[in-house]
Amino acid sequence: MGKLKVVVTSGKRKTAVAKAVAREGIGRVRINSIPLEIYPQEMLRKIMLEPIKIAGDLVKNMDIEVKVNGGGVVSQAEAARTAIARAIVEFMGDEELRKFYLQYDRTLLVNDVRRKLPKLQGGRGARKRRQTSYR
């Protein structure tokens, strides 16, 4: 019996963290045990399908299982998208696909480092301030 190839990758966006496990299979993609084809929100499904559609037939012989938690629903979708793209590139070892992903959208392979600004003193949030009167 041959060795099964298994690749574990992760993706992050704000406070959402996604962990993807890619193994040889028949092209199944599951997000938190839900098949991606029947994922409830259409917009989020399209976000997560992006790296799979770009890869095309390369994904037909691998299964990807993604566990994602933390953050909001859109952040989770974008974290899962990064984890899926990294899993495909690492599993296939295709340098051309990696270059195409980076050219298409850098956040497919690189985590988005933007974070929320902290609340500052003198106001209700990161930007809002108490008004001052001059008269």
Question: Can you give a write-up of this model?
Answer:
The chain has one domain (6-108): Ribosomal Protein S5, domain 2, CATH 3.30.230.10. A five-stranded mixed beta sheet has the order 1-2-5-3-4. It has helices at 42-55, 73-92, 95-104; strands at 6-13, 16-24, 29-31, 34-35, 62-69. The protein contains three helices and five strands; from the N terminus they run E-E-E-E-H-E-H-H. The model has no long low-confidence stretch (mean pLDDT 91). The N and C termini lie far apart (85 Å). By secondary structure, the chain is an alpha+beta fold.
Question: Into which percentage range does the β-strand content fall?
Answer: 15-25%
**Helical segment tally?**
3
**Measured distance between first and last alpha carbons:** 85 Å
Structural class: alpha+beta
Major sheet strand order: 1-2-5-3-4
CATH architecture verdict: 2-Layer Sandwich
Order of helices and strands: EEEEHEHH
**Biggest sheet layout:** 5 strands, mixed
CATH class: Alpha Beta
